[in-house]
Amino acid sequence: MATYKDIQRATGLSLSTISKYFNGQGVRPENGAAIQSAADELGFRLNGVARGLRSGRSQTVGILVPSLDNGFILALIAGVERHLRRQGLGVLVSSSPADEAAGEAVESLRSRMVDGIVSVPSPHDIAALGRARRAGLPIVTIDHTYADLEVDHVQLDNRAAGAMAAFHLLDHGHVRVGIIGGGDAIGSLRERRDGFVAALAGRGVGSADLLLRDDEPTVDAGRRAMHAMIARDDRPTAVFAANYDLSVGALIALNESGLSVPDELSFLGFDLDDIARVSRPRATTITQPIEVIAERAAALMLERIGRGTRGDQAFVTVPADLTAGESVRRQQ
CA-CA distance, 41 to 121, in Å (whole number)? Predict the structure, then answer.
């Protein structure tokens, strides 16, 4: 079985540098690449149990999410796990649906002695995450922010994403527009809506030309909201749906309605890259760079594990992308 000394002979690096790399501490990028290349070639594998006993850590990070039936969540889990695994850490995934007892999933992860928790937090878990943070457990949240939870955080620049959607529609001549926004309960959706509305106002489009539906952020709610907009005598010429589930529901309603997209109604979705590949016409979509968000969250967790929870909390925003399809028509 390969050892640190075998990697030292292959790379010429010191044992302390090799040890730092496998313990998640900072090394020069070129040294890290050389160590990983040698480890892969030699078939080196960390003994996680022995490493944990030496360090007093479990070498495991908890990933806490509201559910496991969402494409964004699953991609995020995969990205965080991949980045942590490269540094020798495993993950323990736990879901915390709305009907679960408050804090139960957080306490379950703590009972398994995880070294930290990366979470897309649910409202009923905020108090338990706060207790864990005050007890010294590193916490990194993604997507949703809560004022009374002081932890490291990574999210999309949601206001800018909403504004990007508005500007795309405005630049195609649409001034009678609708947004299926998801309500105030989820901060990321509220920020996307606010950014969208502010961008319209900045171009002189007021509330009289804006149709706003703040339904629950679910597929069924998106379907109902789009049907309601389609049924209006003064329906919008274009609609933006502000998250994946709402976008899927809106597309279902458009298919059911028989309206021609974009000839009779233009549509701009959110996080629809996979669906856009098979939809006809190809959907235009705002996209979260999930891999970047996952990498930033994993890096913050590794940093906290290495230096503890003291110090200012990091708040990282990541810019959105827009993938143009054929679902937004230029108004004449």
Answer: 39
